[in-house]
Amino acid sequence: MANTNNPYTDAPQTGITRRYEFNVSRGVIAPDGYEKRVILVNDQFPGPLIEANWGDYIEVKVTNSITDDPPEGTAIHWHGFLQSGTPFMDGVPGVSQCPIAPGKSFTYKFRAELYGTSWYHSHYSAQYTGGLQGPIVVYGPRNVEYDVDLGPIMVGDWWHRDYYEVVKEIMAPYYNGQSSSDNNLINGKMNFDCSTVEGGNETPCTDNAGLSKFRFIPGKTHRLRFINSGAEGTQRISIDEHNMTVIANDFVSIHPYETQVITLGVGQRADVLVHAHAEIGSAFWLRANVSTCSNVKQPSAVAAIYYQGADDDPVPTSTPWNVPDPGTCANDDLELTKPFYPMKLPEPSWTQHMDVGTTTNSSGNFLWEFGGVSARVDYNNPSLLSSREPGFQFEPEFNVINYGSNTSVRIIVNNPGRSPHPMHAHGLNMYVLAAGTGNYSASTTVLNTENPMRRDVQMVVANGFIVVQIDANPGFWPFHCHVPWHSSAGFFSQLLFQPDKLPAHQFDIPHDVLQTCRDWAEFTNTVVPDQIDSGL
């Protein structure tokens, strides 16, 4: 059971490696009827499901076939995985590796140390918003019994323009840094009203492209694994006339609680149980609405849930829950979300304040700052590799924060601006000690230190704060806003933990990682990548 196995130390030694091959290439799809150029894994959107058992190794050979129009690098991040002992497999160009050059391959191999629901996505610029993303399920101990696993359900806002066109827009001089999505998708599907396309736009568009559909068995309890794989929109997810029991947030099983609506920021996941209480032949809407705190033109997505025996041609006529949107983008109250496996919070050996800010540079570009720095990476010189060079000094714009030998660091994030941010830590699970509005105050903020929520993404609301604590994992770990338009404009940092351990033999950089950098150097000798953003 999930309350007796320490999820961080008790993963079984299965001796099994789950192997996958990914081919990354350009394509053209119309998931909502509006045709768009995209970047896909194995010509699929969303990409293929990766499955493993807790303790297995996952091995993925990634071939970059983005060789023209124009050629482009790539790298894939395995969201939420700790990468203990394998920081070079985190999949972040400029931090843990060089990009995979066009026409080249790289094989990732890492252990499924945690279990639950997650996803993979490109971390090269904002490339994942162009389609390079897919789900991951790691099966492990249960905290609640259920009958049917419906699998992952990816929910995300969707832009009709090429991702790089959006990056160019937000990085243009004197632009305000905001961009609005065109639609909202559930498992890569949703309809779009083609009559709303601007005049003069001759892009092929088809009404009634089709919706995702799911099947319930009457009387059975179903597990649904929701993933916010979008770019900016905070999602409010519900099923008409059905309560949901939340059993996990991100990679952390929790004590179950019941709700009608779950709120997911970008990168967050929630596993829920739904009891199929209706009659054979019934039909209901699954709804995902982008919250009013986000930028969106068409916020509503639906998918159909048909009970066994139902005709899946007629659309459901069910009634939505009357749960008003608070418009804050806040996650559920921390009092509701208690990890199923309790862990004692260690005393922090260091406390860091990292404020969110904005600036406009001398060229008129709007930039985000985190901890007073608008960050950028060097694709040709990843931090993890460069750190092994004697006497190497990091440029201030890399925003490397060296925590030395500290074992547990408390970070206070103040966000005085008008935008909410989903804060994601790579290679680390955060203890979430507090989240609120206004600036953090040591004298008035009550910290939840008794079995606090743990997760890898936590929302900080507009004009708000969060207090998190992170246990050391040797390596360079990005800590950033998961809205790609924000990280593109500099909103990220690199947390360096226990650098004295990195020269040890167990952290030797594999030959294939070094070869990927040689391949990238050869590619960039003849082609100059158009890195107009931070690179992440």
Structure, explained:
- It is a single chain.
- By secondary structure, the chain is mainly beta.
- The chain has helices at residues 163-170, 383-386, 484-488, 511-526; strands spanning 17-29, 36-41, 50-53, 57-64, 76-78, 105-111, 116-122, 133-139, 148-158, 183-186, 213-216, 221-228, 235-239, 244-249, 252-259, 262-264, 269-275, 283-290, 300-307, 350-360, 366-370, 400-402, 408-415, 421-425, 430-437, 453-455, 457-460, 464-471, 475-481, 492-497.
- It has a six-stranded mixed beta sheet with strand order 10-9-12-17-14-15, with no helix packed on it. It has a six-stranded mixed beta sheet with strand order 21-20-23-28-25-26, with no helix packed on it.
- It is globular, with a radius of gyration of 22 Å.
- The model has no long low-confidence stretch (mean pLDDT 96).
